[in-house]
Design a protein that fits this description.
- The chain is mainly β and about 450 residues long.
- It has a domain of about 100 residues.
- The chain is built from no helices and 35 strands.
- The protein has a 4-stranded antiparallel β-sheet, with no helix packed on it. Strands 5-6-7-8 form a 4-stranded antiparallel β-sheet, with no helix packed on it. Strands 9-10-11-12 form a 4-stranded antiparallel β-sheet, with no helix packed on it.
- A hairpin with a 4-residue loop joins strand 19 and strand 20.
- It is globular, with a radius of gyration of 23 Å.
- It starts with 11 loop residues before the first strand and ends in a 20-residue tail after the last strand.
Length: about 450
């Protein structure tokens, strides 16, 4: 079966479930659900109402029930529900129960601007236009909870605590930034805190749910406030800056929740230990010149874009950190975070901007990137080893996305590649000019194991 032939409609979209066992394909007025372990056969077709087809606001899978699993096995449940939103209409379907469906319609004078599943697949969170309010709809009881004045109508302004599902939310009340913590299910506010921020830009829970970080606007000095899980103020990361535009761009927690990486607008990353509040010796930053064995090239920043660390990604064991500076978006910088002092250990130069940083869940040292290439291509890299590049022969160009297949029980380094009109599963083999992409139809078939010999040591 050719996955590419499934869709020929401009109003189309393809997304995998959390563990890539299911694929949802939107083509015109039809949704198709494919079960990947069974030869990618279509297990369900859903016809959309003609009145709601057109502008797709959201197409999302629910998270699997229970805690996130880095290496799911054949018995780990995957995403169970799919959400479709268009204008003032939301519909949710269950993969396993064809008789179950939930529909939400807001009325002709109302439009949703952002829609997603909430803490569980039994709830949907939806933001109204102009940030007037957000509504959490219960799909099991039919009830709804309205919270007024959210500061943002996107994922940066709220977050559900891992495991417990408590909602943390940024509000704008009386011109003040306000943080609220809400109980699961009832969404009663249990904590309300007026922040000391000038213009809070987002919040993020630590993976263990013990900490909550809120970062301030780039127009201020670097500032991140840390709160405990119940919304109590803990401490603030802040330092003086010589320029009014050297604030925080983004933050990222390490997988073990011990470190907080703070990407700043001066092109540096600060690593802070949340428990001790100590900043590592020296900030992680690079210098454009002179040449060095790690990075034997020079670049001139004259006339370039403003520096800011726009992407941060920890490896699963948090021993390595990959970053991207938006002034040099085609370069990935690799840092070792094993010791107290971060160390630059490598850099990967691409011909086009890097769009995705994807650490392998099975092999912690393996990094995969997807770029803004004209031809869909995946790049795989292990530091101090020669990277390999593979083009995806079935993809027909345009915007594409890549994901590791977390349900890869064979540890073959399986990947999923999707584009507007199709998708494919496969793996990369070989090195140098012999590198190639092998397509597969069944992710649970026997595939060659990942081989470190495909990444020759560079000798640097």
């Amino acid at each position: 079966m050719s996955t590419k032939s499934l869709m020929k409609n401009l109003n189309s979209c393809v997304i995998p479930s959390e563990y890539c066992r299911y694929i949802c394909i939107l083509s015109g007025n039809k949704l198709s659900i494919i079960f990947a372990p069974e030869g990618q056969n279509i297990v369900r077709n859903i016809a959309l109402k003609e009145s709601i087809t057109g502008c797709v606001k959201a197409l999302r899978w629910s998270k699997p029930p229970g805690p996130s699993i880095a290496e799911p096995d054949a018995f780990s449940p995957d995403s169970q529900r799919i959400l479709y939103a268009s204008g003032n209409y939301i519909s949710v379907w269950d993969v396993h129960d064809e008789n179950w469906c939930a529909e939400i319609e807001a009325g002709d004078t109302f439009n949703f601007t952002y829609v997603d599943f909430a803490a569980t697949h039994d709830e949907v969170i939806a933001f109204s236009e102009f940030n007037v309010h957000l509504t959490i709809f219960s799909l099991s009881t039919g009830g709804q909870r309205v919270i007024k004045s959210p500061k943002f109508s996107n994922a940066t302004g709220y977050g559900f605590r891992p495991a417990t599902g408590h909602l943390a939310l940024l509000l704008k009340l009386d011109a003040n930034d306000t943080l609220t913590i809400h109980e699961p299910e009832t969404y009663e506010a249990i904590t309300t805190v007026t922040l000391n921020t000038v213009d809070a830009q987002g919040l993020k829970w630590s993976p263990n749910g013990a900490w909550l970080g809120v970062w301030d606007s780039a127009s201020t000095t670097p500032r991140v406030e840390i709160y405990t899980a119940d919304g109590q103020y803990y401490r603030t990361y802040s330092e003086a800056a010589n320029d009014s535009n050297l604030g925080v761009k983004t933050i990222e927690w390490s997988p073990d929740s011990q470190l907080l990486a703070i990407g700043r607008h001066d092109g540096t990353v600060a690593l802070t230990n949340c428990k001790t509040s100590s900043v590592t010796n020296g900030t992680s930053e690079y210098v454009l010149a002179p040449k060095s064995p790690v990075f034997p090239y020079t670049f001139s920043s004259a006339g370039g874009g403003a520096r800011a660390v726009s992407s941060i990604a920890f490896s699963r064991n948090r021993h390595m950190l990959a970053t991207i500076d938006q002034s040099l978006p085609h370069i990935v910088w690799m840092w070792s975070t094993k010791s107290q002092t971060p160390k630059l250990i490598g850099s990967l130069i691409q011909k086009s901007s890097v769009r995705q940083l994807l650490w392998c869940p099975t092999f912690p040292e393996l990094l995969m990137t997807a770029n803004e290439d004209d031809i869909p291509t995946v790049h795989q890299w292990i530091c101090n080893r020669r990277p390999r590049i593979a083009r995806i022969p079935l993809a027909d160009g345009g915007k594409y996305s890549v994901s590791w297949v977390r349900a890869d029980c064979r540890q073959s380094g399986l990947i999923w590649v999707g584009w507007q009109t199709g998708y494919t599963f496969g793996y990369v083999v070989g090195n140098g000019t012999e590198t190639g992409f092998t397509q597969i139809l069944n992710i649970e078939d026997e595939h060659p194991a990942f081989n470190m010999d495909d990444f020759p040591i560079t000798g640097t």
